[in-house]
Amino acid sequence: MDGEKASSSSVNVTIADECKIFKLKKIELLNLMQFLDEDIRNGLGRETNHSSMVKCFITYVQDLPNGTERGKFLALDLGGTNFRVLLIELVDNGNYKMKSDVFIVPSKIQTGKGTELFDHIAECLANFVKENNLDTKTVLPLGFTFSFPLRQVGLTRGHLINWTKGFACSGVVGEDVVQLLKDAIRKRRDVKIDVVGILNDTTGTLISCSFRNPNTKIGLIVGTGCNACYVEKVENAELFVGDHSRPHVVVNSEWGAFGDDGKLDAVLTKYDREIDEASLNPGKQRFEKMISGLYMGEIVRLAIVDLANQNKLFNGRLSEQMNTKGMFDTSFMSEIERDKTKGYTTIRNRLSKMGINDPSLVDCVNVQYICECVSTRSAHLVSVGLAVLLNKIDDSFVNIGVDGSVYRFHPFFRDLIIKKTRELIKPNIQFELQLSTDGSGLGAALVAAVVSRD
Questions:
Q1: φ and ψ at 108, to 5 degrees?
Q2: Is 5 tagged catalytic?
Q3: Of 18, 161, 281, 436, which has the most beta carbons under 10 Å away?
Q4: Can you state the angle between helices 293-309 and 270-278, rounded to 10 degrees?
């Protein structure tokens, strides 16, 4: 890894030895690929889906944009503590105009009643419509990106399987979230919005990238959570109940749950187990918890605390901040790994803000190395998933649409994924990673446009 090369020569031997638990050998990655490939194939099967942790939900998205779509479309993108409302106007030559606002889901709503969540979303939608002077008497088509595990039974019907990413709203699991949103909008009586399609953020990312690159066959998110979708042959998707005259359908893998049955146990560290046990959903989403931005910083913090308690960092000194769960944000890792200054100025400043004053240069190097090991493991696990999907699609070239804060902002993440994925895929396959410019929000609007077009 690029960051490791810059610092590994001066990393404390003891720290390097302790961090070996994060370094996955190629044979371990290949074993995980075999397990994940089996789970995806089982997830697609009518008789085997129930036994697979990777559920491979059918999205019912079969048509991608073809460039003829025109008009104004709303999009709602809900996938974490913030959500976006967008107005997309599709014009000629594949161009579009966009306005958007970001709204916050307060923590009390994230863990409150489901009706409160959807009432809050409906209020924000209504405010957005009015602020942008849209006609409140005309029905506005909306694409809804809902980035939580969803079992769809149609393009406009999707039942929540379970909450992830810190959400725990009551009365929503098992319910049709489209209907809950429609009920909240209808209850207001001040706007007319028709939810014409629901999708998750990976599907939105795939569609937004396919708008510019028709070879896009995979959508990947590495942010607060981690998931991927891909284009599958209809005959392989045995649970699909729809138009079989069209050859393909987008499948939402929900690979974050990979390993919930123990298939990751051989590569889990004590820190992974501690995070899982302390989470809102213990035993669930274990693959995601090893990869995503919601957890990576906490893995690093736990490692730092453990090593300091063993007198292997900071001469055994720890601060209240460093001892507090959630205080070491994943964004700190990007700052720390990017620091190549002679005196490690950025690392010193970051540690000082965490209450660790006057760390030695060796401490700075060691903290950087811990961050590198955790982020590299994350990227390599993403490579495992991408390699399985690329080998399964087996096209000579596949464009992969990618979004998410970890992918966007980590200095080496993209390069780490590319290098390791190339080592794991069939030699005849080429691929590119394309950053999704406007992400899953644009994808949701494009789904609404495609539905309106058809």
A1: -65, -30
A2: no
A3: 436
A4: 120
